[in-house]
Amino acid sequence: MKKSSLVILFASALVCLAGCKPKSSGMPFLDYEILNEQAAREYLNPVHPGVRGETPFWNKFAFKFTYAPAFDFDDVDGAAAYVFSATGGDTTLFFTSDTPRAALSPIWGELPFGKIDLSVQAIGAEKEPVGEPQSRSFTKDYPFIGPYESVSDDYMGAAVRAAEFIHNSPIGQLWLKTGEPDLGYRFNSYPCKIWSATVQCECFLAANKPEYKDEALKVARNAAAALMKYSRPADEPLAYFPPTYFRGPGSESLSGVLDRNQETTMFVEAVCAAKALLDLYDATKDKKYFDFACHIAETYRALQGADGFWPMKVNYFTGEPTIPAPCMPTTILQLAQRLKDQYGVKGYEDMVAKSEAWLWANPIATFNFNGQFEDVEVEGHEPFQDLTNCVAVDCIDYLLAKPKPSQAEIDACFEMARFTEDQFTLWGSPLDVAFGEESVQEVVPFVYEQFVFQVPVDHSTAGVAMAWMRIYEHTGDLLALAKAKTLVDSLVKVQQENGRIPTVMYNEDPENHNDIWSNCTWQSIVALTRFAAIAK
Fold it and tell me: Model's pTM, two decimal places?
């Protein structure tokens, strides 16, 4: 049995020991003394450790760890053993192993938090030093120790207020008044992601706040009409794909991104439009939205490579790849799964099977969850150089949304959730210097987005919360539930009186809509809504 399976079984046993009696709200009782002890034990197990010649070490560029790491140090000729020496502050701890790639589990629980200097010295049969020591410095981050501040348990109310903010701000009102993308809201320069999220926020508001229904659906229809209007024609390679990038008056602040991406598009982002159009179809029963979403899915099926993957970035007019890296296919798979499960649309089984095989053989096996963002240059990045929680979260969301995920899928998702915590979640952190903002201490716990963007982001915080919710739903692990609750509570904590959830979670200007990514707000709404259902 895999180590992750044992951890899940152990966690399930703790659920019973904790006396999981529901409170009046429906939430299980969370005994934090037991959960904190469980967390401390789990932090001694490395996350997806590499094996020379089999599994690469994903943590070459990682700078902080919550779980005991293992590093890809070299074997030394003539070595009989390896002495590990780790120093943090005034504390130095040692252990010996027969491999230089051993996890730091024997000393991890006793090491102080903050900067750690690690040295690995090969020794011979007579315990004499052999060769030069190998070294690595990193930060040991604080663990989960609950409970954390909880400002409200009205999670559904928080979700509705967030959607109200999108509607009442120029993000929604410009669509209502003009029916066209107004670049006064600068992120409208990202149509697939932002116009689509606006449609979804408005559909949610229409369903949950009757007094907004007519206006909200008008906003959604206008944004959807623009998505369809500016999409590629039916006889072109990227048939029905809306653009990733859109230039117009007001988009000058994004000119660097738009200049280097002329005539290109992020291949996977048309999924955002398809999902939004399906949401609008659900809200209106207007079949043109359903048909357009199906056309997008058909283009994906037609362009899938024989080996199961699609390119990450392509020429918007020819469909030819502009960089060799593959896109992460999980959201495409989610679209196919939704068409099948919710609407009975068949014919994507072969596409899904090939793409899943690629998924298991590549990112799930290697943990090369490199960032794929429209505003970050990915060309030239080494493997593992810009890891992100978002790619792992999408994998978890796809695999555990299946009606009956396998034990192998649950195990893999548990390991990916640990990765998102290890590398991107801060429960309370000594990383003031690394993050460069004293104010980040005011919003912990939070999740940051990627190695090259190390700031608290609501989308990432919501996404990792969702991952732990999925783990809880399939395993009953109360520690997973406690982690999810803590992160969702952070979203509520930073929400402002007008409903605004800052994308960068320490941005405090309640009237500034121009630094809000509406897709991030939508992710927060999804997480808040899902947790509201769990809590009740």
Answer: 0.92
